[in-house]
Amino acid sequence: LEEKLREVVDQPGVTLDGVRVPILANIEQADDVDAVKACGAEGVGLFRTEYLYINRDHPPDEEEQFQAYRRVATALQPHPVIVRTLDLGGDKFLSHLVPQQEMNPFLGWRAIRLCLQQPEMFSVQLRAILRASAEGNVKIMYPMISGLEELCQANELLETCKDQLRQRGVPFNENIETGAMIEIPSAVLVADALARRSKFFSIGTNDLIQYSLAVDRMNERIAHLYEPTHPAILRLIRMTTEVAERAGVRVSVCGEMAGDPVLIPLLLGLGVHELSAAPPVVPKIKYLVRRIRMSEARDLASWAIQQESATTILQRCEELARQAA
Ligand code: PEP
Ligand code: MG
Hints:
The chain is α/β, with parallel strands linked by helices. Helices cover 46% and strands 12% of the residues. An 8-stranded parallel β-barrel has the order 1-2-3-4-5-6-7-8, surrounded by 5 helices. The termini are close together. Phosphoenolpyruvate (PEP) binds next to strand 2 and helix 9.
């Protein structure tokens, strides 16, 4: 198998029946770009930018961030690099923004909420990403969008940042694409509205599962309740892809589900267009995608969406994975 995995590194993600499924990588710092290249990922589907901010006294300035984003974008050109704006809070520790103790950090002051309340800090990041977009295929993704207003506010601030760069005479891609993470159930329910203001969606299954099943993703005592194949999760994914399809918005999955070989046929069958996973699993995911028939994946998903038990669905997925291996 090792040999076979090496063979797919230079080949595109495409199913046996010819449906293109780009496989991208999730990264946490600019240094990860070498691993992205080595694993054969077709771009970065999730650049988690938190690591630029944690364990230090001051947030990184525009220049430092610009250099980090630019390094990745130029190295991977012409592949896309989706930079996710700051997703601090929740499990990601803030050292310079010392927060008040929160009763429910995952329901608290995190990600886009924190950024919209700290517009100066947020603008620094947006300008840095914009500047990198002049040198590569850079896109912007907002985390933890719960409704249309947050998306509009973020995009308004982005327009202000574009104006500032224009005034400074600094180049950027005027048509930079922006997208929303779909990781809160309310975002799924208003996905039609979000789709009108987004070029793409990326489903963050880690948080989507946590929030829709009310299961803390870090709590081992209830880990058995954290079920990616829960019928509710499949329905939420399906609702997202259906709305997106009608609106012409592309959907990727960048949560851990996209890195689980067993779940790949199910995700593709549910209408997901792209996958983004950690570099070490990218070759395996691509290898698998190249052995899947989209027609069979759709049959699997149509069957699964009617089931009542997460275990039944998971067992069927495992059975198919054994046959495909
Ligand atoms: C997710 O929630 O699935 C996701 C990709 O974001 P993070 O794991 O960084 O919260
Ligand atoms: Mg998340």
